[in-house]
Amino acid sequence: MFSSRLNWSVSANPIARLIDQKRASGATILDLTVSNPTAAGFTYPAEPILNALADARSLVYEPEPAGIPAARAAVSDYYSARVSADRILITASTSEAYAFLFKLLCDPGDEVLVPRPSYPLFEFLADLEAVRVIHYPLVYHGEWAIDFAALEHAVTGRTRAIVLVNPNNPTGSFLKKEELGRLTALCRKHDLAIISDEVFSDYVFEEDSRRVRSLIEVEDVLTFSMSGLSKVAGLPQLKFGWIVISGPAELRRRAFENLELIADTYLSVASPVQWAAGSLLGCREQLQPQIADRIRANFACLQRALPPNSPWSVLKAEGGWYATLQAPRIRSEEEWVLTLLAQDNVLVQPGFFFDFATEAFLVASLLTPVKVFKEGVRRILAHTDAEPSS
């Protein structure tokens, strides 16, 4: 009766079952998976946010498929006017932006190339559009990089786009200028578009002249750069994102016209958040420093906590909200997560949630309140010479 696109398992996995058991027993869990900034103890400018949402213009329905001009202008201002408003299309979220772009670029059965490891929602978003996800690897040799030989090998006659997450979630690695040159050359060769998810691009640990912070200025390949309030201003509940279209002028024009048609079919973005967009983006000046201080402090704490000759290691990250620990391979990732939760009341995420190709990696959120993060790390790293329990 139901579509095969919904053929996903919804049963609880062992980790979810143990979390439920722990919470039912009243245990205090040190949750190092916090990804919701509104629940992470930051101080929000409540009055300006609520006042912005009370704009009387929201009482009049003015459907604009690409977004209310004031909202598009606010996004242009976010980019310091490096992008004109006529290249911006407003969406309810980056998830919706992916859905729109898959509709724009793909027929059923077509393929998009996505990085591994990366964001765990790609398969679901693609399945809902009857699009196939093909992974290409990121490789780690002291820092993360695209495996270009594997990327080109993954291209087929049905490939329509290459997806980037810049910086990657969860590796925290940015695209480098040299990589961008190779990537655009590959896309020109095979007539592919680039989809660049840049929701974490404002969050960097230190500057690097090699780094590409955004692809909004790519000129020779059709490119879509996405972001939104969820990460930029720490406001995921307000459902406001955008797509910036870059590349050759004629391709940009055609892409925008078709995206506007798709958006007109849904008209999903609420008027209050569109009229408030300028003020809400302005609130990032109060939120981003708090978030940046937190993630840098936690990442530094994690690095300092490693004793000499530790069997644990921290993989290099350049930004974003996550850190990756390489665990001793005396247990699988699932066994490590279950052991830490059962014995230490510490919750982290296993690498396979993010499609790490090998064992054993654990992912921790740097948004976690500092005291909780520090104690959680202490308990994790106390497992030094432990053997798996029988």
Primary descriptors:
globular; Aspartate Aminotransferase, domain 2; 390 residues; 2 domains; four-stranded antiparallel β-sheet; 38% helix; 14 strands; alpha/beta; single chain; 14 helices; Aspartate Aminotransferase, domain 1
Structural description of this entry:
This protein is an alpha/beta fold. The protein has 2 domains: 11-43 and 284-381, Aspartate Aminotransferase, domain 1; 46-282, Aspartate Aminotransferase, domain 2, CATH 3.40.640.10. The protein has 14 helices and 14 strands. The chain has helices at 14-24, 46-52, 69-78, 94-105, 122-128, 148-154, 177-190, 229-232, 249-266, 271-275, 277-282, 284-305, 333-344, 370-381; strands at residues 30-31, 88-91, 111-116, 132-140, 144-146, 159-165, 193-197, 223-228, 241-246, 313-314, 322-326, 346-347, 349-350, 361-365. The strands form 3 sheets. The chain has an 8-stranded mixed sheet with strand order 2-9-8-7-6-3-4-5, with helices on both faces. Strands 10-11-14-13 form a 4-stranded antiparallel sheet, covered by helices on one side. The protein is globular. The mean pLDDT is 95.
